[in-house]
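Q: Sequence in, structure out?
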Amino acid sequence: MTRVLVVEDNDEYRGHLCEYLKRKDYQVVEACSEREARDALQREAQTIGVAVIDLKLESENSGIDLLRTVSDMYSHIVSIVLTGLGEANLRASMEAGAFSFLEKQRRDPEEILEVVQRACLRHVQKRQSGTDLMRELSKIRALLGDATAVIERVVAES
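A: Exactly. Output:
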């Protein structure tokens, strides 16, 4: 099962969401601030597949900044933006790399679970395409290695 990083500064909301995901057999990493989330990513990024990020953490842009970091530095992680601010930040979230956008007030746990499941599927697809790309690169390297050997022989014989 994909591990989910939940970044939410509201202790009660984060607690409910994390407990719900755990009951659905997800492994959850909790963070209550941008700093805690960055620390968790440094320690555990390779084991995290989905990040649920509250848009407004300590400061106005901390959620967007974290979202950009995840998109830029941890591209295998699929991000979901969670906010109580309505759709005002939808465009900025999507431009920063969000897979999906959820409003806290309108979402029941089943709707959130559905989006997390879709994000997990996207994570698996990203991992698979990355694995396929690495296989292709290995083939190209092998071909280039053979070509390099042939060129060296031709040069040596001339």
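The chain has one domain: 3-132.
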